[in-house]
Amino acid sequence: SGDKQQTLYTTSLCDQVVAPRPLLGNESRLWMPWTYFCADLAAYQSYADQIKNNAHKFSRASLGLSETAVVLVCANRPHKIDPQVFDAWLEALRILQAKNIQAQLWLLQPSQAGRQRALKRSGNMAHCLVFADRVPRPEHLRRLEFANIALDTLCY
User: Fold this and answer.
1) Most buried residue, 34, 91, 98, 108, by most Cβ within 10 Å?
2) How many other β-carbons are positioned within 10 Å of the β-carbon of residue 16?
């Protein structure tokens, strides 16, 4: 049949790096106490120590983000974002805009050619795109707290 079953997940898989403060909403949490990467305890310990010792303070403004917008972030490498997924995110931005909700799509900085393709593909929504500069992993993880909604790609 043409019907699609929609599954709603209400449990978040979290740790103190990914979710350093209480989550909003009614979802339950499955806490992974020892790892950021499910199979990489050494990396977690290293990143957790670096984040604790990282004095760099971010603000939404310093990251190019609006103070009032809903920020949708995809922190995957740009090559993982296929056109179909990107178009779905743009449609989400359009729907939010139609409801007078300011929103931004925050992506890792692609190559110059990739950036131009993204801006062209986004058309009248280009003003909603924000590209994050490459920074060391501890800084990257720290700045993610300014996102409201995390997006993922279909591949990987």
Assistant:
1) 108
2) 15
Backbone angles phi, psi at 16, to 5 degrees: -75, -15
Low-confidence ranges of the chain (pLDDT < 50): 1-6
* Tens-place pLDDT, residues 111-135: 999 999 999 999 999 999 999 999 8
Report the candidate in 102, 107, 93, 119 with the shortest Cα–Cα distance to residue 153: 107
- Of 115, 117, 114, 109, nearest to 135 by C-alpha is 109
DSSP string, 8-34: ---EEEE-TTT--SPPPSS-EEEE-TT
pLDDT for 45 equals 67
Contact criterion met (CB below 8 Å) for 69 and 86:
no
C-alpha 83: how far from its chain's center?
17
Site of tokens 């305890």: 41
Report the alpha-carbon distance of residue 65 to residue 14 in Å, rounded.
24
What is the spatial distance between Cα 44 and Cα 50, in angstroms, rounded to a whole number? 10
